[in-house]
C-alpha cells in the first residue's frame, strides 16, 4: 500500500471485525486487524482492539521517525463473538487521530506530533497485512473474521463512518480516494 498512500494528507481505514478471542498482554501489537507498515516492521497506520475490550481504534505515524500515536479511547461496544465496525483516521495535515466503533466516534486526539504533513513511508521489510501483525504462524494473529476492509487516502467524516456501520458498501464512500 505504501506507494498508493505516499503523499496522502490523511489515511482512513475501516473493517468489520468479529473476534472469537483477543490477546490481552497489554502490548500495542495485540489484536491488529489491519496494518500498513511505514518502515522496517514499524506500523504507519493500523486498526487494533485491546485484549481487555476497552479500546478499538487506530495507531499511526506520518514517517518512521515519529512516535506511534493513538487516540485516548474507551468503548464498551466491542464484544467477542459479534460483528463490530471499527475504523480510524490518521490526519497528518491537521495533526489528529480519530477512532470509531460501530459508526460512533470513540476517540479523538488533536495536536499529534507528526513530523510530516503527509504520509511519508520509508522501506518496509514486511508486507502490509489484514488479520496479522507479522509473519509468525502463532503470534499476533486475528482470531476470528474480518470483512470489507478498506483504506482511503483522505479523512473520512463522522457521517461516512456512520454509513459504513449501517452496512453501506465501502466502495461507494469516496471512491476517488479508495485504495483497497
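Sequence proposed for the structure above (180 residues):
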Amino acid at each position: 500500500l505504501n506507494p498508493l498512500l505516499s503523499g496522502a494528507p490523511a489515511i482512513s481505514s475501516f473493517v468489520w471485525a468479529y473476534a472469537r478471542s483477543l490477546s490481552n498482554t497489554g502490548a500495542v501489537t495485540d489484536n491488529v486487524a489491519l496494518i500498513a507498515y511505514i518502515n522496517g516492521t514499524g506500523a504507519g497506520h493500523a486498526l487494533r482492539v485491546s485484549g481487555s475490550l476497552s479500546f478499538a481504534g487506530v495507531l499511526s505515524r506520518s514517517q518512521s521517525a515519529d512516535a506511534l500515536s493513538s487516540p485516548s479511547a474507551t468503548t464498551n461496544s466491542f464484544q467477542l463473538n459479534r460483528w463490530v465496525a471499527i475504523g480510524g483516521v490518521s490526519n497528518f495535515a491537521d495533526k489528529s487521530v480519530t477512532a470509531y466503533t460501530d459508526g460512533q466516534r470513540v476517540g479523538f486526539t488533536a495536536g499529534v506530533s507528526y513530523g510530516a504533513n503527509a504520509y511519508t513511508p520509508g522501506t518496509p521489510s514486511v508486507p502490509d497485512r489484514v488479520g496479522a501483525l507479522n509473519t509468525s504462524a502463532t503470534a499476533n494473529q486475528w482470531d476470528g473474521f474480518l470483512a470489507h476492509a478498506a483504506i482511503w487516502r483522505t479523512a473520512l467524516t463522522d457521517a461516512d463512518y456512520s454509513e459504513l456501520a449501517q452496512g453501506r458498501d465501502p466502495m461507494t464512500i469516496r471512491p476517488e480516494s479508495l485504495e483497497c
